[in-house]
Amino acid sequence: MKPTRGSCVLEMPMAALPPTRSRNWLLAFGVAAALCVSLVAWRHGGGDDRPTRSGRDGAGAQPSGPAAPLRFHDGRWQRGNRRLGPIAAAPPADGLVRVTGAVVDAASGKPVPDVEVVFSDGQSEATTQSDLAGRYSIDVRAGHYRPFVRAAGMISVGESPRERLPGRPRTDQIAASRLEIAPDLAVYTNLSGADLEVVRAGVIAGRVFDRAGHPIAGALVRATPSDGHELRPVLGTDVAETDLDGTFQLELGEAHYVVEAFHDRYGATESNPTIALVAGDTATADLTMIAGCVVSGRVIRADGGDAGDGALERAWSSDADSGFYPNGAFEDDGGFRWTSIEEGDVTLRAWPWKAPPSLARTFACRDGARYDDVVFTIPNLGADLVGSIETAGGAPAARAFVDIVGMSDGTMNQQERADDLGRWEVFALPPGTYQVTAYVAGEGAVSAIVTSPGSGGTLRLSGTGSLVGRAAGISDGTFTLTVNSCATAHTTVSPRSRHLVTVRGGSYRADGLPACAMRGEVSNRTRKRGFEATIEAGGVATLDLDLAPPRAKTVSGVVRDDAGRPIEGASVTVLSGDLGDSSASTTTDVDGRFAVDAHGGDVIMFGHHQGTSELPVGDDDPDHRQVDITLTPGDW
């Protein structure tokens, strides 16, 4: 096998050899060393040693970084264990910039060695490996990247974007990368300390059967968080397809998940179990699929053409006048398949993007009911509200989502999507006043007050800007900045954009943030804090951040009632000032005394049926603080 890099490692366990054989082993080692030198010389003499491009020609990313060393074993050259640095000593090639950092376990902060690090720009990938200290080095062209990790037992996770329409999983989602949930990293100069957090994964494994116990091949299985935990695997390992024997395997972070299966010949899963998955463990979930109720067919326009994609909506009751809500989706060609295990009358209608809804139809659902070749026809009606949306630079914001919220009596809420030219239309919208908002990643947000029927005019997105400042507690490294809300002229949108920000010499610069009044959070391995900042389009705002590890404190004292008497059994709970969860708790003794460990920024809550109180813990408080707490009568 031709070596791909100019290095090799020869292993010679001299300490384990008998003295009488040492010289023979030394001779063998010398021959192997000569061969290694020859291979290295031949490799470097073969031309350019720079890494080749990964992905399409002209794309931005190029792989680089240290490869696992070669060693001669069992009669052939193999990749051996990775060495501990130094890594990427030579300068990057012309036109490339270098990013270095480490892969760390988000829970423990420990380095994660020998995993594949991937930088994707959406068109191509650059890859490298972390070394034994978890460090990596990669050379890429300047641009924006979504970095993540591919490894067994460790996964990169991120918060899923808003699901506009509920739908069945598709085969193209099986182990497919969701780059939009990986953090955005702007790379325009050499960057150091770009640390990537991963989480330990667990596995949900099982089989899918029919009611007779026969395995079902080709079923799509999906795990959905059920406990408010919204972090999903970047590599899409929460969706899988069953093998011929009905088996499946999902790799996920620690959380509670609802597991369900989908198949064209079956209506639904008889029951969808909730699995409490622990990192490092394998949980079992066997699923039984039943006939259920299936409604399938196409959505067409009045002229017979495809209606495009959109929502299948279900009435709140069998009466269409009760109102509808999205309960499924149909594809670009208008094809749909709706399933349920419920029995009784179900009223459905189809509503494509940029079109009015179809007439509703009612189906008598029972186990085994099949309604095939159902056609929903979209009427040819005019729009009630029209407009366009463009970027701050005046380009069409193609396929941007627009939210319409009613503000006067008799109005309703809708969502729409612009076409490739940025034009949007809203149908079946009652007369009244509406608030129209939109957010596009990397382009900013916009809002306007409009009246229906009428024109919404041109919505121009706010654009982006930069945030700079000092990051106390980080000299060289990274932190994650998440934008949770973005206040525009008339309302607040929730973009949930996540950025990986690099700190150099204690200073940071975050580019590509929405131009608006932002609120969000910044976090690293030790802190998670809220922030507020206002950025003008194309401008730079300054905000200093405190990400230093919180100082440990011990707080003790006595809890009393409003008459000054000590209270036995009062609850004392420490709430993390950064995370908002409980980090320690105790109760007062017979003399009302307590002692708890806390950190600067925490809040200590006191509670009893006689009243409540709270005590903020400041970073500047003494390390050992003595307090007397008086409970104020109130609900606990």
Strand content: over 45%
The first-level CATH class name of the largest domain: Mainly Beta
Number of domains: 7
How far the N terminus sits from the C terminus, by CA atoms, comes to 71 Å
What is Rg? 30 Å
Number of strands: 51
Low-confidence stretches: 1-60, 62-86
Give the overall average pLDDT.
Answer: 84
Give the % helix: under 10%
Shape: globular
The CATH architecture of the largest domain comes to Sandwich
**What is the CATH T-level topology of the largest domain?**
Immunoglobulin-like
Task: Please report the number of helical segments.
Answer: 1
Main β-sheet: number of strands, strand sense, barrel status? 9 strands, mixed
Q: Give me the CATH superfamily of the largest domain.
A: Immunoglobulins
Task: Tell me the structural class.
Answer: mainly beta
Reconstruct the topology from this structure.
Elements (H helix, E strand, L loop, with lengths): L21 H23 L25 E4 L2 E4 L17 E9 L10 E5 L4 E5 L5 E6 L2 E9 L2 E2 L1 E3 L25 E3 L8 E5 L1 E9 L9 E6 L5 E3 L5 E3 L5 E6 L2 E8 L5 E2 L4 E4 L4 E3 L2 E4 L2 E9 L8 E6 L8 E7 L4 E6 L3 E9 L8 E5 L4 E9 L6 E6 L10 E6 L7 E4 L5 E4 L5 E9 L3 E9 L1 E7 L3 E9 L4 E11 L4 E2 L3 E8 L2 E8 L2 E7 L4 E7 L5 E3 L2 E2 L5 E9 L10 E5 L6 E6 L5 E7 L3 E6 L2 E6 L7 E7 L6
